[in-house]
Amino acid sequence: MKDKTLVLGASTKADRYAYKAANMLLSKGNKIALLGNKTGEVANHMIETDPSKISDIDTVTLYLNPKNQEQYYDFIKNLKPRRVIFNPGTENPKFEKELESEQIETIEACTLVMLSTGQY
Fold first, then answer.
1. Distance of alpha carbon 78 from alpha carbon 76, whole angstroms
2. In the structure, what pLDDT confidence band is assigned to residue 3 with cuts at 50, 70 and 90?
3. 23, 29, 53, 97 from 105: Cα distances, Å
4. Per its UniProt record, what InterPro entries does this chain match (predicted)?
5. How far is Cα 85 from Cα 103, in angstroms, rounded to an integer?
6. Torsion 17-101-94-73 (CA) sign
7. How far apart are CA 112 and CA 97, in angstroms?
């Protein structure tokens, strides 16, 4: 099993990219954790609303616009993930610089494309 990916901005709505990414991550053999503003379930995985229940994360894939990311800055830095993926629409140069100063890799890319092209 590969290391765990946190889908931040998780949603139970099937048309959302966060929902599609959670399902594709699982289909490719990745472990996932889901964090969102509403509880629910995606592919038999519960969406947490309490960040303190999340740990052991290798990759954070963001599905929140820069304004909605702010409340998670310290949480993400304290997780000490290997990398954070900024999906289209989530690019945040200020936060990317902060993460890089903590030796956390940042990638501006689409998780769905990375998974489907074997770059994940």
1. 5
2. confident
3. 24, 22, 23, 10
4. CoA-bd (IPR003781), NAD(P)-bd_dom_sf (IPR036291)
5. 14
6. positive
7. 24
Q: Tokens at residue 12, please?
A: 């139970």
**By the 8 A CB rule, do 63 and 6 touch?**
no
Q: Cβ distance 40 to 14 under 8 Å? A: no
The residues with which 108 forms a beta bridge, in sequence order, are 86
Cβ-contact 82, 57 below 8 angstroms: no
pLDDT digits (tens, 9 = 90+) for 68-114: 999 999 999 999 999 999 999 999 999 999 999 999 999 999 999 99
Residue ranges of domains in the chain, CATH in brackets: 5-116 (3.40.50.720)
Contact between residue 17 and residue 69 where contact means Cβ atoms under 8 Å apart: no
